[in-house]
Write a structure and sequence with these properties.
By secondary structure, this protein is an all-alpha fold. It has 13 helices and two strands; from the N terminus they run αββαααααααααααα. It folds into two domains: about 45 residues; about 230 residues, MetI-like (MetI-like fold, Orthogonal Bundle), CATH 1.10.3720.10. Helix 3 runs parallel beside helix 7, helix 7 runs antiparallel to helix 10 and helix 12 packs antiparallel against helix 13. The longest helix is centred in the first third of the chain and has 44 residues. The mean pLDDT is about 80.
Length: about 290
Amino acid sequence: MTDSSSAGAARQRAGRTLRWPLAAPTLIVWATLFAVPVALLILFSFGRIDPSTYKVSFGWTFSNYSKLLEPVYASMLVRSLLIAVASAFICLLVGFPTAYFISRCQGRLQQLLLLAVIIPFWVSFIVRTYAWVSLLRNGGPVEALLRGLHIGSGALDILYTPGSVMVGMVVNYLPLMILPLFVALERVDPSLEFAAADLGTPPRRVLTRVVLPLSVPGVVAGVVLVAIPAAGEYVVPAILGGGKTSMFGNVIFDQFTKTGNYPFGAALAVVFIAFLMLALVLARVAIGSREDVV
């Protein structure tokens, strides 16, 4: 007994000794690519800029953060969050039945369908977004389709609107919703659905009482994977918004590259990162509470 206890204690000491050397590469990468840049953003966010020389001085002022309360920036943040949430919701509505269908397919058919979901990632994000400019322009295929369905008349002016930005968000981020949903739904044993149906449960209640509760981790993961990058999106609003539908990412970009106001741009970025981290924490709490229930 004493020898086994000594061996166990020796293994624990060896594990503690090796822990930090093994974690060092990951910690170095994390510090270099995340911790240091964020620390620099926080440092710059408390600085001042000289309008005549564009030189930054650090006086630990909160004026950059108080400027965020101005209606133009507050409304831009709210608009970005609303577009991101709406895009994630539409992706969920489209992606859930798609992922459910793929999860219930078998063999080569399932592999082909998964390949069809992944194929868009083989094309550049910018190329895919620019392709929708031709599709959504006046006289384009989308307008012709809507006219064929007797929806609207004349020039519909779809392009360069909030609607075109949401279309770009949905088509670009939809695979990020389908894949985690597929993983979660594939783990749901079909026999549970058959058992519920045998007990006289209507199909709608089977979906809401059996399938949906068991797929909550996939739903949360999909919403996070879509909403977080969509909220800070720059490319889609710049291309499909045409400068008329800017989002928070565009405002941050303009502060750094056009106006040269690094302190205010850093404050915008810090506040936005705080919002995204809060969303990630809430998502993790939701998944954890669901796992505790299950």
